[in-house]
Amino acid sequence: MTLTTTTGPATSVAQAFFCLLLCIPWGSSCPPSCQCTERAGAKAVLCSSQHLEEIPKDIPRDVVFLKLDANSITRIPSNAFRHLSHLEEIDLSRNAIEKIDRAAFKGVAAGLRSLDLSSNRIRSIPKEALLALNARLRLANNPWHCECALQEVLWEARLELDSVQDITCHTAPRQEYVGKPLLQVLDAGVNFCSVRQRTMDVAMFVAMFAWFAMLIAYVVCYVRHNREDSCRHRDYLSSLPSAQPRADTASTAL
After folding, report:
1. Closest by alpha carbon to 65, among 41, 91, 40, 33?
2. 140 is in which domain, residue-wise?
3. What is the helix (H) or strand (E) element at residue 89, kind and residue range?
4. Which residue in 16, 63, 148, 197 has the most C-beta neighbors within 10 A?
5. Domain final residue pick, 142, 170, 190
6. Do 115 and 176 belong together in one domain?
7. What is the residue-level pLDDT of the chain in tens, covering all 254 positions?
8. Which residues does UniProt assign to the signal peptide (predicted)?
């Protein structure tokens, strides 16, 4: 006897639905308030102007382009993008970012091509967070405090040329640098790293002088204390009754 299997419409639909589920990659869900699209085979997550206060946790792992601009994000924590190994572009412009952790971009340093941090509230940034990146950086329109770390970023990182002039000193060690583009200040011969080195040298000199003064004070106190002990011991010996008169009396009696 030969058994024949017939496939009805309901069975075909079920099989097609099952195949569709198998084709959907893990982690491809889209974060709330975001739009997930695909451009020429590259996935993009668009979360612009969504009043976000932090970076979404459920971004698909295979995202290539990530737009988080025009939100209210205040911080980029360590390992914020570590699971996004395919990421090539991040747009974090026009947020309220004030703090960037040292390991904020750990895990995406190799493949990242573009990082936009312009128009935020960044005053300073750990150089370790940016110097490991190969990405083109946009850092313009932030209230920068001009210091050695920012100078090293300017010289060593890959900055977008059209945005370098907009990296302005909002605060600086000297008032005359405030309001000027950092590149202009550096071109004038200012070296914030040498200023920091001089400050460290002065602090070290002050610390050494204080240590030497404490050593001298200890020696003086030690000598004075020993002198006082010697004086007390001498006074004690002089106060003891002398044995010589008794010897004289004994000889007279004989």
Report:
1. 91
2. 30-190
3. strand 89-91
4. 63
5. 190
6. yes
7. 333 434 454 445 444 433 433 333 434 589 998 999 998 889 999 999 999 999 998 999 999 999 999 999 999 999 999 999 999 999 999 999 999 999 999 999 789 999 999 999 999 999 899 988 989 999 999 999 999 999 998 899 999 988 999 999 999 999 999 999 999 999 999 999 985 444 444 445 445 656 656 777 767 776 776 776 677 667 666 776 755 555 455 455 44
8. 1-29
